[in-house]
Amino acid sequence: MKNIFSILKFTLFMVVLLAVIYPMAIFGIAQLAPNKGKGETITVNGKVVGYQKIGQKFDKSNYFWGRPSAVDYNAAGSGGSNKGPSNPDYLALVQKRIDTFLIVHPYLKKSEIPSDMVTASGSGLDPNISPQGALIQVKRVAGARNLSEEKVKALVDSKINLPAIMGTATVNVLELNIALDELK
């Protein structure tokens, strides 16, 4: 009986610690973060349209497209395909993405498509593409919106995020598409 009482006390202590105190501590720390731990939202006209760090699906010709997603952009369950580069199913999927990309961008050669436009990221939620991935879409987007390619290219150039110290330059697709909608 003495052992059972000790075990029950320990269990109750752990429940209070892990189900009450720890979550409250994390919540309190989150209140010190930007946007009080609710993520880095992007708003347009007072309405939240997305998150800066989570990719979204854009598939219309008048918008820039982001990286493909292995989880269909479901932020509740991020993940990659977990298929290696020699897996026949994976190679077929990448080839299908290449074929689709070339149909919509007939002015390109297969060798001109950056890998980030046909391969999903490890999380499946990457909000960024390479500057090359954005620049090869300029002709399509400009044509779909009846804008000059120079104007759309200048917009892409203005949205390139350079790395602070190390890394590669990126373009946030949601921010680029919002700026595109604001373009007159």
UniProtKB/TrEMBL annotation:
Subcellular localization(s) per the UniProt record: Cell membrane
Membrane topology: Single-pass membrane protein
Sequence intervals crossing the membrane: 12-33
A GO MF label: ATP binding
Superkingdom in the source lineage: Bacteria
Keywords noted in UniProt: ATP-binding, Cell membrane, Ion transport, Membrane, Nucleotide-binding, Potassium, Potassium transport, Transmembrane, Transmembrane helix, Transport
GO annotation, cellular component aspect: plasma membrane
Listed InterPro entries: KdpC
Main subcellular location of this protein, as a coarse class: membrane
Subunit structure: The system is composed of three essential subunits: KdpA, KdpB and KdpC.
Function: Part of the high-affinity ATP-driven potassium transport (or Kdp) system, which catalyzes the hydrolysis of ATP coupled with the electrogenic transport of potassium into the cytoplasm. This subunit acts as a catalytic chaperone that increases the ATP-binding affinity of the ATP-hydrolyzing subunit KdpB by the formation of a transient KdpB/KdpC/ATP ternary complex.
Family: Belongs to the KdpC family.
Name this protein carries in UniProt: Potassium-transporting ATPase KdpC subunit
Species of provenance: Flavobacterium petrolei
